[in-house]
Amino acid sequence: MTLDTTGESLHKRGYRKLTAKAPISETLASALIMLTPWKADRILLDPFCGSGTFPIEAAMMAANIAPGMERSFTAEKWANLVEKRKWYNAVEEARDLADPSVKTEIQGYDIDGEVLKAARENARRAGVDHLIHFQRRPVNELSHAKKYGFVITNPPYGERLEEKDALPELYTQIGEAFGRLDSWSEYVITAYEDAEKYIGKRAEKNRKIYNGMIKAYFYQFPGPRPPKRTQVK
Question: How many alpha carbons lie under 13 Å from residue 204 in its C-beta half-sphere?
Answer without folding.
Answer: 9
